[in-house]
Design brief:
Layout lengths: L2 H10 L22 H6 L4 H23 L5 H13 L3 H25 L8 H19 L2
Amino acid sequence: MDPRIARYCSKRSTVSRRQQIPRGTADGAEAEISDESAASRGVDVHRTQRLAFLSASLATGAAVSLGGPVGFIGIVIPHLVRLIVGADHRLVLPASAFGGAAFLVLCDTISRTALSPLEVPVGVITAIIGGPFFLWLLIRNR
């Protein structure tokens, strides 16, 4: 960045450096804000958590209903990849793309060869494999 632009931005900033929220660490992990910290800043934590859960549930339902069961891969595979490679987003994003593609190819191969003369829809295979895994993720985190 040009030093003149940096000086201009630092002079014009209305938020002091102490008040800025950290953007994360060098390894890509994001800063966590506790419930107590949010409540002390005037946030209704319980209401906000319910709203976030409801919004995430509606978004997930909409994605699966529009994209079909194959879209379920985009929900399950990133969680699996995060368990394997850690929370570094620089690794999770490409690993999720390759892992999702490999998982879909595997499910497609199974769907074509499981009942040889018939083809089972690939969404059935993804649901059979992904559903129990997603339930395991939900139970494990509690």
